[in-house]
Design a protein that fits this description.
By secondary structure, the protein is mainly α. It is 80% helix and 0% strand. It is built from nine helices and no strands. Helix 3 packs across helix 6. The chain starts with a helix and ends with a helix.
């Protein structure tokens, strides 16, 4: 149980650190507008994750009650989706580009709302949760809904920790990225390895 949850937490941290639209957006807002704007964006994004966790928790749990073979099919689709994400990352540019354009008309509350809406209205997040979470169900005694919420809480907590650190240390992180240009390559391959590893674990 604890090994599964620990593995899930490590995988989440690796994915949160790896360059993506969400953490780049947080980093940019923090650099341009200040730490509190970056943290407001993080809170908005993480609040959106609660919605996705709920959709997956009740949706997948209902499927499990109806037919385990359908759930197995979903797991296969999940593995295929994770391999597809790994391939997309492989084909993408490893360079991390940060925008220096400020939106001085944006308030802290507006950035919170923007982060929340960005996350909730992104169907790719639901697809990712659907592919990622079921592989880490950890107990035969707890209900699947509770397990999904536990995984969701760990995902939100670890991602908030990483994104919050990016927001608070935005200047230092930005300078580090400029000096160590190859870091994007290492983060890119870290993300690929996580996706492929989980997909393989589903298939074997």
């Amino acid at each position: 149980m604890f090994e599964t949850l620990f593995s899930f937490a490590i995988a989440t941290i690796v994915l949160a650190i790896s360059p993506g639209p969400d953490n780049i957006f947080v980093l940019t807002q923090s650099i341009v507008n200040g730490k509190k704007f970056g943290l407001a964006t993080v809170l908005g994004l993480m609040s959106g994750c609660i919605i996705h966790t709920t959709l997956v928790a009740f949706g997948v749990s209902a499927i499990l009650k109806e037919n385990e073979s359908i759930f197995f099919f979903i797991k296969m689709l999940g593995a295929a989706y994770l391999l597809y994400l790994a391939f997309k990352i492989y084909k993408s540019d490893a360079e991390i580009v940060l925008s220096n354009k400020a939106d001085t008309s944006t308030s802290v509350l507006q950035l919170f709302k923007k982060g929340f809406i960005m996350n909730v209205l992104n169907p790719k997040v639901t697809l990712f949760f659907l592919a990622f979470f079921p592989q880490f169900l950890f107990s035969e005694n707890l209900s699947n809904v509770i397990q999904f919420y536990v995984l969701g809480a760990i995902f939100i907590a670890t991602t908030f920790l990483v994104f919050g650190t990016l927001a608070l240390l935005a200047g230092s992180v930005s300078n580090y990225l400029k000096i160590h240009s190859k870091i994007g390559v290492y983060l890119k391959w870290g993300q690929i390895i996580v996706f492929v590893f989980i997909a393989i674990m589903i298939l074997i």
